[in-house]
Amino acid sequence: MITYRYGPYEPDRDGPWNMDRLMSVLSEMVMRYDMQLDDALRELINRGLPVNLFLKEGGMDDLVDQFIQQLDDQINEVLDQFHLQDAIDSTRDSLEQARKQSDDRLKKHPELQKQLKDAAERQSSDELYRLKWDLVKETGQKELGSSISRMQKDMEDLNTLQEGQKRFAFRGDQGLSRKEALELLRQMQDMEDLKQSMKQAQANGDLFNFDLEKLARYLGPESYEEFLERRDRIMENLRKLMEEQGQVVRDEDTGEMKLSPNSVRRIGRRALEEIFSALKSDDTGANITAEEGEGEQVSTESRPMEFGDSVHALDISATLINTYIRT
């Protein structure tokens, strides 16, 4: 069996992150998009580069755990203090009053009255919104539109309050107005979102994609400043590691990180490999490669060319002779 050689194997670029892969991506960003190395590194982390290996060293693990515990304490304190039942009851009463007003205005239109009743029983605010304009047009009563709008708002608030009660299980003794309860639920949701983003940061090392404004609002400006300080420390540790491995050097004048001569040479070598690998080689022949594989025997005999045959197997000499004979 005739054998020929394949080209060199190139590892999967989507494999686990390591320093070689990191420098490969960083160098491409620097060269292709004319970015500063620090900016390229920050962009990678912003897009999900896992730097969680540096979290413990930079003290971020403990700090994030502390933040999560503080948020849990705040949430539990609120749950122990308040309940939503007063807000739910008052909203339900308001909804019933608005429903009766709308129902009274439709006494002369029993079919329309039934449509409104069905929509209210299904507690569909979207259906009420669509139905409102049809009913106002049919009856000519602008006041009916106001009553249905009130029903729609009451229904949306009631759903929000009931879902909030199920999710957070308020257990306190202090009641709240509807407005106070809705605002409290919004804050509770903010704190839950902040908690989840912090847990995500711990899992993936993503230190840039959660809301620092919420961090300052619920845990105070001191927590905000401490987080930024430790995040900068982690970035500096990563830069130092890259320096120690000879991947980058620091400019003495500006302090900016730049690719080291070794990294630049590596980029050039990889660029040449990509250029040569992109060149199309013959299907068969003496291609210089590192791996062996199965090939095929090339026959010295020839036959008329058929549709689908490769032009690489064309018998040039015989073809030119046939052309000369035909002319």
In short:
The protein is mainly α and 327 residues long. The chain contains 12 helices and 4 strands. The protein folds into 2 domains: 241 residues, no CATH class; 84 residues, no CATH class.
Explain the overall architecture.
By secondary structure, the protein is mostly helical. The chain has 2 domains: 1-83 and 170-327, no CATH class; 85-168, no CATH class. The chain is built from 12 helices and 4 strands; from the N terminus they run βααααααααααββαβα. It has helices at 19-33, 37-46, 60-81, 85-105, 110-121, 125-139, 142-168, 178-204, 212-219, 221-244, 261-278, 316-326; strands spanning 3-6, 248-250, 257-259, 291-294. The strands form 2 sheets. A two-stranded antiparallel ribbon has the order 1-4. Strands 2-3 form a two-stranded antiparallel sheet. The protein is flat, with a radius of gyration of 35 Å. 18% of the residues are buried. Mean pLDDT is 76; it is low at 1-14.
